[in-house]
Design goal:
The protein is an alpha/beta fold. The protein is 41% helix and 17% strand. It contains 17 helices and 17 strands. An eight-stranded parallel beta barrel has the order 3-6-7-8-9-10-11-12, surrounded by six helices. Strands 13-15-14 form a three-stranded mixed beta sheet, sandwiched between helices. It binds iron/sulfur cluster. Iron/sulfur cluster binds at residues 13-14, 16-21, 23, 26, 29, 43, 45.
Length: 456
Amino acid sequence: MAKITAMEAYKLLPKTNCKDCGEATCISFALKLVSRETELGKCPHLKGGNLEELSDKVTPYVRPVEIGVGGSAIVVGGEEVMYRHELKFFSPTKIFIDAGDNMSEDEVEDRIKFAKGFTVERMGEVLTLDGLALRCGSDDPKKYGKFVEKVSRKYNGPIILCSLNAKVLGQGLKIVGERKPLVYAASRDNLGEVGGLAKKHDCPLVVYSNSLQELGEMTSSLGYDKIILDLGLETTGSGLGKTIDRCVMQRRLALEDVKELGYPLLGAPAAIWNNSKDPVVAATWESIIAAILMDRYASLLIVHSIEPWSILPLLTLRQCIYTDPRSEPQVDAGLYKVGDPDENSPILVTTNFSLTYFTVSGDVRKYNMDAHILVIDTKGFAVDTAVATGDLSAAKIKDAIKEFNAGEKVKHRKLVIPLFASHLRGAIEDETGWEVLVGPRDSSSIQKYLQEKWQT
Ligand code: SF4
């Protein structure tokens, strides 16, 4: 949970209620500050020890770290809890596709296109990838520099420069340092050189070790806070279990305010490909291990596969994990057109739980049907829950018909309600005067259902 309560934050504020921060009072600023709806910098009157103390207290246990600049910059970390139901997780895991200077031009081109263009629409949200990780397979600074230069002309999203060779990283930073790439990685052997490069270019830095104690020593000796941790990934035997244990331990220690370890985690399941010759097996395992790491607190993943079937589960899992558990995902109530419905088209009644609405509208679209969908405000509850709580009721359906002028959009007077709301049928007919048809259990059979039952 947050390190500080609103009342504790208020005590450190000037308490003049001057409104310069845009809030009516200092207490409302304090409330927004601890719920991360405003920033400390908006109070220009906070100074000295109070500023320092409050600044420390509102910095999340897992510090947020920015990669990139301007509109394409992304933030990783910024987390405050072990389990999302304790509050929420704030920064969805960023997924980077790797590309290397030892790949053919065509392969690199394919990877750039995939990183830029692979999108999936789910529950009204467009899910995308986040960046490119540029590996140096040649260990040749010149060759790597040319590669980085070529890729950076075609791709303007966030970049990771990957090598353990400081000369290689230095060459990459000469070319794209202004874009604030993530520098990957400083290990015990190159900490001074690579750490120095990251500081010189003011870029975020990955610090690598599979020992938490060593990582803590390295981060505290750096005196730099734009840090991401790589705990190493062991993929064989009991190694994977040990990797997961380290990830969990790191989050626990961060939440105990062990500052040397209070940074986001990076995982590189792309390493799987080093041990597998079969691309299908490698992509499958990579996807599984990436999912495990995402579940165990990885804020950033580097993957090699550009197969949609192996990336899609990661995007959907990420959406699920990072949905705010304090509120149901909802769409606005209303009368929506799907396809090109006219006055004879059916009106399908459903709830405003996003997954329900997008499933029903997706099924209508999939079969090239035309329908009106009457979405009732059920506080985001799905049909069965909304019926049980009374949030889907005959009275609410009557109100929605009136509010969204359903009677003017069609010349018939018929509604199709979900099967789970079937016992409301009589009440809806009494309240509205409309004929009610009970729809199928699942909207995937809506086409067959309407072909058999719908007549005007
Ligand atoms: S600017 Fe600072 S002092 Fe003024 S109301 Fe806001 S929090 Fe209070």
